[in-house]
Structures are given as C-alpha cells and as structure tokens.
Amino acid sequence: MKNTIIKYKIDNFSGLLSVVDFKSHYKSNNFHYRDERRKPPFIKNNMSGCYFLYNEVKEIIYIGKSINCIRQRLIDHLFRKHMGYSHDEAYNFRHDKKQKEAIYFSFITVDKNKVQVVEPFLIDKYKPIYNIEFNNVC
Question: Is the pTM of this model over 0.85?
Fold first, then answer.
C-alpha cells in the first residue's frame, strides 16, 4: 500500500441517519432476530467499512471501523453499556458520553483489506474528539 493515494469523501449531510430511528427500528423488531430475512434491513448485514458518529450540530465525534459488520459495531456503540474496560474509568466515561452525544451516524463501505489503513487516515483528516488513540484532544 506504499505510495497509494486514499480517496474517500464523506458526504456529511445527505447520508446522515438518525440514531433514534436506528434504535427504534431494532427495538421494535425484537432487537435479536435469528432469521435476518424476516427483519427489514436498516443497514445491510456483513458490510465492512468505516462508520461515523455525529453530534447535534453534525460534527464528527467518532470514527470507527468494522471488518465484517458495520451494523453490529453501531449496535455495540449506541445500545450497550461498555463492559470490556470496566477498570478504566476514563474510558467508560468517554464511552458513555459519546453514546449520549451521538445523534446521527453515517458509514462508507471499504474493502476488508483496506479498512485498517482508511480509518486512521479519516481520523487524522477529521480529528474527532473521541478517537483519543489517534488524537490527543479529549
């Protein structure tokens, strides 16, 4: 991938989806359907790429990646209390705050082999406040 130009543009306003609509869709469909054919898709299953969480003024506050299912990563970020780093209070605080501030989201599909490169590029370009592993601002 050396000397490769990365060209991804985020259309910040036409592709935004509401977090409230996303939550109500999955809660109204019993949240855990075993048979994906019965649930009308809000986001297709098995898509790899990057997703973006926005605050109420439509600024990107977090950029994440998923190699196999963007929808599941969004569900993890927006619905669930974070259990993985329970001893790191600062991390839990940031996760809860990010969860409360996220009003909109969007995503782009990226090839599974390129997601690891595209995510840091986008974080460096947009500098979201909750990506502290690539950004010293918090």
Answer: no
